[in-house]
Amino acid sequence: MKLLRQRESLGAQQDYESAMTLLADVRRSGPVLRLYEPAPTVAFGRRDELRPGFADAARAARESGFEPLVRRVGGRAAAYHGGCLIVDHLEAAEDPTTGIQDRYRLFGDMLVAALEELEVEADVGEIPGEYCAGEYSVHGTHPASSSAPGRKVKLAGTAQRVVAGAWYFSTVLVIEQSEPIRSVLTDVYAALDLEWDPATAGAVDDLRPGTTVADVERGIRKVYGMYSEYLGYGPLTD
């Protein structure tokens, strides 16, 4: 399984289009795992684009330093920046529509396992009021020693795209600096006239202070290395 560690963002649109290019090529190249820290982006869904407040929402994103992007997969608006890690997983498949729900469950559980390497309590499932709500979101729980013991926050969202002969599974994991994400989403959701609870937006370092993107990336590489070996692809290779 080939590992592509993108060292810097190409920009919101180019990063997204690069994933589409990889998806078109994966039938020839074999399975690919791409990791990178994105430029500040608000990724809107198609339904957001159709709402009367979309232009105002896109303007609010830009005013906060986040580039608006309309993606082909996923639900409502989600925000991410350089304190996040994007995990793009692409594989060929004879029938990529088979196993869609299984992939959501499997890769959600793998992300939870990576966070558990850092002793972060996490689980898969939607929490009430979260942004870009999804059944397979990954959330974390504030530890008993924190100022908000037991409170759950969304840490990651996932989405899939399938094309003839291949699939693409993308995860956005918020690791550092959740406040800018809460702030921009507050303005964006207000413009779209959508309800959500800003207290549900969090980052791994809210639960385990001092955690960095590099810390979480090590856990991600470990669990994906196990996945690659288990399926007979061999170790992750740069």
UniProtKB/TrEMBL annotation:
Coiled coil: none
Keyword flag RNA-binding: no
Stretches that traverse the bilayer: none
Pfam families: LplA-B_cat
Source species, domain of life: Bacteria
A GO MF label: ligase activity
Keywords: Ligase
Domain BPL/LPL catalytic residues, every copy: 27-235
Protein name: Lipoate--protein ligase family protein
Source species: Kocuria sediminis
